[in-house]
Write a structure and sequence with these properties.
two-stranded parallel sheet
Amino acid sequence: MVRQYQKLFEFENVKLKFTDDAIAAVASLALQRKMGARGLKIILEDLMLDVMYQLPSQKKVKEFIITREMVENKEVVFALLEKAG
């Protein structure tokens, strides 16, 4: 699922990264909720919804990193990195 999101963001010329802690936090939330694999998808969709709508309008973003804090707080922080050139 992470790779699917990364591929989607490539179309917007944005490199999407997930920290190892972020991936572990998603898995932990799914286990806590006793949701299994479907829980992984739901958690990621909830988190990525804002990113998918807001990031394309941010023309200066070249790379975006999803962190553990974003997953746990269910809030995405847009730290912008400008495109080179």
